[in-house]
Write a structure and sequence with these properties.
The chain is of the alpha+beta class. It has 18 helices and 14 strands. The longest helix has 24 residues.
Length: 524
């Protein structure tokens, strides 16, 4: 498969010839890590979002996702992986020391599920902005069920260094305005992530087993590990299989050819009613069930493995932000929570992902055909369910390729990028690459294999395993010496965010109906 990467190698050599070794270094990286608050026996916490953590609506780093119990910890964009991991360690400690009798669940898949009604939908207060977030989540519950919405993940945000773009623009001989060039390159990165993203699921998938209560008696094609645990013997990420979060609407067709096709297809879905959702209704007996009856209520309802992102301003939609200011960074969304890492992610994983996304940016990326789209779907599902199966083959351009062979060809390309990121004093990117490459020939080193190995060693099902790991991490954070400056800053942010929410609620001077009409009104 090496000829496929000829243009990538040419580009890499041109970058090396610029004599600017740090050209690709210090791209900005960020993490958004979701974690369920649970009780000591693994049940969802039924308590409100703790006030000591601040307002989930206005806090810049501590919020909630679908459920009131599904905490989300958001880092700022940082250049150094070790600095990012320190932030994530400190924020986990800040949270754990304010959870009283609760702890954070150390796995992507939830447990002890007692149906939709046991899952409290996130509440953001009485302001129009807060109530809109709540109603949107009500809609997700009516459309897809609540259980699916409490699967947790880790999102990796990345942007190439700002100084890289003008030079790359010149080396490519491109005559587009710089921001248009940047937009096209990021969409090429996204398409390549879709093509090669099965590798991320193989390397970092950590959910080969789950509690049978999550399935609610369905999907009985999984094998039984014990009376309460289902699993796939060679699975990597059941979260990324068809039981995970996905949009099942057949009329949804989002195009990644360029920024315009992407935003246009999303807008079309947000303005096209769907009979199934019309049957639900918007406001029934005076209570909102969803924001509207369209294929998508808002852009965020569309699930994808990667999103183009731009920082949004007040009351601005994602599509409007992208249209007005272009792509600023990308968000990789296919990462399981690593149950063996207290922060849910490691610095080694971060370094590999940075290298991998740089490769996706430099590799040729033609539009995805319908055949290739079907191949991508097949590869993702196959690796999620059977990724560690010996001799597994995947599809690419109508040909079958052994996972190990295709993976080896990809790792061969990634090695050159490490030389641009490492320094004379540190070989951390090369070390990270070697660590991950071993998993191709030794699948027992993958997190998914290690989860099953730990369950067998301790003779425990999924619930007992996840409880054990969650308790270990909680004890670590609760007894770790605090960073005094971080603690003070986060106490200040908590107080300020509560005040900001109160101010929003006091200053609202229009009805919720008017607010929605204004939000969805065409802005251009």
């Amino acid at each position: 498969m090496t000829p496929l990467y000829q243009r990538f190698n040419q580009r890499l050599q041109r970058l090396l010839s610029t004599q600017q070794p740090a050209l690709l270094a210090r791209g900005l990286k960020g993490l958004e890590k979701e974690s369920l608050r649970v009780t000591s026996d693994g049940h969802y916490a039924q308590t409100p979002h703790p006030p000591a953590l601040g307002s989930a609506l206005t806090h810049p780093h501590l919020t909630t996702d679908y459920s009131e119990a599904l905490l989300e910890m958001v880092s700022p964009p940082l250049a150094e992986p070790d600095e990012l991991m320190r932030f994530m360690c400190n924020i986990h400690q800040f949270v754990h020391q304010r959870l009283a009798q609760e702890m954070l669940w150390a796995n992507s898949m939830p447990c002890v599920v007692q149906g939709d009604e046991s899952i409290p939908i996130a509440w953001y207060g009485t302001s129009n902005a807060g109530f809109m977030k709540h109603v949107y989540r009500r809609g997700l519950g009516f459309r897809y069920g609540r259980v699916m919405q409490v699967i947790a993940g880790v999102h990796f945000n990345y942007s190439l260094p700002t100084p890289f773009w003008p030079l790359y623009h010149e080396l490519e001989g491109n005559r587009q305005p710089l921001q248009e060039f940047i937009n096209d390159q990021y969409f090429g990165l996204i398409r390549n992530l879709q093509r090669f993203g099965w590798l991320v699921i193989y390397l970092f998938g950590a959910s080969p087993a789950l509690c049978k209560s999550f399935l609610g008696g369905q999907h009985n094609y999984f094998e039984s590990f014990d009376a309460h645990t289902s699993y796939e013997p060679y699975g990597t990420s059941l979260r990324m299989s068809d039981i995970g979060y996905n949009n099942k609407t057949p009329t949804l067709n989002v195009c990644y050819n360029n920024l315009h096709s992407y935003t246009s297809s999303l807008k079309r879905a947000m303005n096209t009613p769907h009979p199934k959702y019309e049957a639900i209704g918007v406001r029934v007996n005076g209570e909102y069930r969803q924001l509207n009856t369209n294929i998508l209520q808002i852009e965020n309802e569309y699930y994808s493995t990667m999103r183009p992102k731009q920082v949004m301003r007040a009351n601005e939609s994602p599509c409007l932000a992208l249209t007005q200011r272009g792509v600023q960074y990308v968000e990789l969304r296919s990462l399981d929570v690593n149950p063996f890492a207290p922060e849910g992610m490691t610095a080694t994983q971060l370094r590999f992902l940075e290298v991998f996304l740089i490769f996706c940016a430099l590799q040729d990326s033609p539009p995805i055909t319908q055949q290739e789209h079907q191949e991508i779907e097949y590869n993702q599902s196959t690796v999620a369910l059977r990724g560690r199966s010996a001799g597994l083959t995947l599809l690419h351009q109508g040909q079958k390729h052994r996972l190990q062979d295709w993976g080896a060809a990809l790792f061969e390309q990634l090695a050159g990028i490490c030389s641009l990121l490492d320094t004379a004093e540190s070989q951390q990117y090369q070390d990270a690459l070697k660590t991950e490459q071993l998993k191709l020939t030794q699948p027992q080193l993958t997190p998914s294999a290690q989860v099953l190995a730990a369950m067998r060693e301790h003779q425990e099902g999924f619930l007992a395993f996840a409880l054990r790991m969650s308790s270990q991490h909680a004890e670590r954070f609760k007894h770790r010496s605090a960073d005094v400056n971080f603690e003070a800053e986060f106490q200040r942010l908590a107080s300020e965010s509560l005040a900001q929410q109160a101010q929003l609620e006091a200053s609202d001077n229009q009805s919720f109906e008017s607010y929605l009409t204004h939000y969805f009104a065409p802005k251009q």
